Amino acid sequence: MFWHNFKYTAKTLLGDKMLIFWTFAFPVILGAFFYMAFSDIEDSEKLHVIDIAVVENTGFRESEMWKESLEVLSDEASGEQVFCTKYVSEEEAKRLLSEKEIAGYFMLADGEPQVTVASDGINETVLKYVVEEIYQTEEIVRNTAERRIQQGEMPTAEFYEQLSKEVMNLVDSENGGIRDISGANLSYTMIEFYTLIAMTCLYGGILGMVAVNQNLANMSSKGKRVSVSPVGKSRMILSSVLAGYVIQMVGVALLFAFTIFVLHVDYGNHLPLIVLLALCGGLAGLSVGIAIAVLVKSGDNVKTGIVISVTMAGCFLSGMMGITMKYLVDKNIPLLNLLNPANMITDGLYALYYYDTFDRYWQNAASLLVFAFSMILFSVLGLRRQKYDSI
Amino acid sequence: MTVFRAFLKVLNQCRIPIILYTVLLVGFGGFQMQTNESSMGFTASRPEISIINRDENAGITRGLLSYMAENCEIREMKEEELDDALFYRDVSYILYIPENYGKDFLEGRETELEVKSTGDYHSSYAEMLLSRYLKTARAYVKYAEDGEELAAAVSGILEKQVSVEVTSKLDTGNLEKAAFYYNFLNYSLLAGCVYVICLVLSSFREEKIRRRTAVSSMDYRKMNRLLLLSNGLFAFALWLLYVILSFVLVGKVMFTAQGLLYVANSFVFMVCSLAIAFLIGNLVGNKNALNGIVNVVALGSSFLCGAFVPAEWLPDSVLKAAHILPSYWYIQTNEFLKTMEDVSFTSVRPILVNIGVILGFTLIFIVVADIISKKREKFSGR
Predict the structure, then answer these.
(1) Does residue A199 belong to the interface with chain B, where contact is any CB pair within 8 Å?
(2) How many domains is chain B partitioned into structurally?
(3) With contact defined as beta carbons under 8 Å apart, do B24 and B188 qualify?
(4) Do both B99 and B182 map to the same domain?
(5) Residues of chain B with pLDDT under 50
(6) pTM of the model
(7) pLDDT, averaged across chain A
(8) ipTM, 2 decimals?
(9) Would A35 be classed as within a structural domain?
(10) SS3 (DSSP) at B115
(11) Residue A3 belongs to a domain
């Protein structure tokens, strides 16, 4: 009887097109949208070569310091190119700026450097900063020269040349004395895909809910028939729920396959642990569905509505509509996310991806199980001794 | 009136999704809008960084700290919270100053600062600032007697600033807010219109109801006309609500010529959404499928055309594909308005082209919807 019911529950669930759309197709479609929208976003946030113009007036032509420095910074071959520089007249520079072809232009007016930009912004700030750096380097040369002359050196042309070379070398040198120790896994768009997995796991709750509803006498005529049949309630419900769980896991596996093979999402090197977390997450989602099916006394539509809103609210708090939300909640109202199954899944995957240690991962996996079993316990208490003399 | 009353009844059924779309719009619009004050002079970008200092706060270390504080937003937090903060871009750069750093630096020993960085432009800029300080300090280290003198010499140099002139008189900050709001409106308006209108059309097309109206004295042409009118009225009301909300949320920049163009552009898009809704309503009869279709259509065109993620950050291939969606042209106009300096015939021309394209789409949708409904009428028989 167990497998008989298992088989037919699975058939009914798979036959429901709406159910399959929400649990199988929708996460895949959403994943494709995420991929298309977010695949370039982090690259766009890197500092790119900035288009600028330099006004080529007599003052500029006579200043070796400025000419050379800007040339070095605009050198495509150097690998540390900051600017793509056009050397133009002042009118041309103004035209380029107004047509937004350059971020700003640089001009030496009576020996004083001047920067003109259209608005605030990071590229504009970098332009200002670099011009300042050259200006300050000039100042360093002048300043050191004074000190050395005070110390008794002779201010010959050779002396100046050597000094400026010395300072320039220092300024152009690599970033000595700074060591980057940040980890490699810093891509925050990963969170979007993690919330997607969380969503799929929790949407599976609809499957659990429908499966249980079929066995409840107060929900459907099929439930009435099942209730009067001489088969134990626990066996019927257990086999229905198991069918729901298996189908849900097929949906999750489909999403994993799609994100890994089509979208090339990188889940790191811990695939078995990720699968384990998805299994726990699916159980948590299923248990929410069961609890709602048992404890809420109303129609199918209302129950589905509740599962969907609980899922979406959970995903929202765990960063699906913007990862800042997860961070804000984690930081300010940690309790909310400790109780949120969507966040347990997202956070567990995040911990695997970002941290070298596993404490946080296991903590999340354990809380998912605790969450799932307490939901199931509530449902069992609700279902126990539910009997009808007439209905 | 009977038709309109029935329409209101159906509308009442879908008030929850409509409220949800509006809350999302106001929530996300408002969320994005708390920041930035408008100012006329040049304001340098300030990267957000954190510093863990294990050295004593004196000499060159203090100089470095105060220089970074001058040019960056320093976020104070516990050390164990920093890794999360870096991942979520709460800070883009973390600087660890080791013990005895100042002393070692002064005595010319090999020194090393550890940093963590997100790799985005804020962190690149923070690193530029840091390395500038270090290089300048290294240029002076052999002339300085002690740490304080070195720090003073370095800050003397770094105080020298270059004057910056800003040419644009635009209130870019507020125009960006408006663009963000109106881009998000793409989702709310499209989802709202498609959801309501499809639900209304499918309710009126239900087998029993269709038969009942067919035998009634109501002329079906008149009924269709009334249905069109009430749907149009609904779309207009929804649009008006969103425009009024934009005036409340965005503020006075909406009263400029650019603001007016945002409103006009969204009006044209509202008409197009109406046509899209009619087309989908004619294609889909199943009420249960509606929710899925609304989500795919509205979310899809919002993601692909740059309503959520700014269009300039989308891959080129996605943007090329997005040309076949009206949302793309609507959002392009919003983006264009963000930096439009003056309103004249030549400057408005690209906007007129975009609006023309949207109207073209509208026309196509209406024609296709018409053909489909005619065909269906024939097949279903009277």
Answers:
(1) no
(2) 2
(3) yes
(4) no
(5) 35-39, 381-382
(6) 0.83
(7) 87
(8) 0.83
(9) yes
(10) strand
(11) no
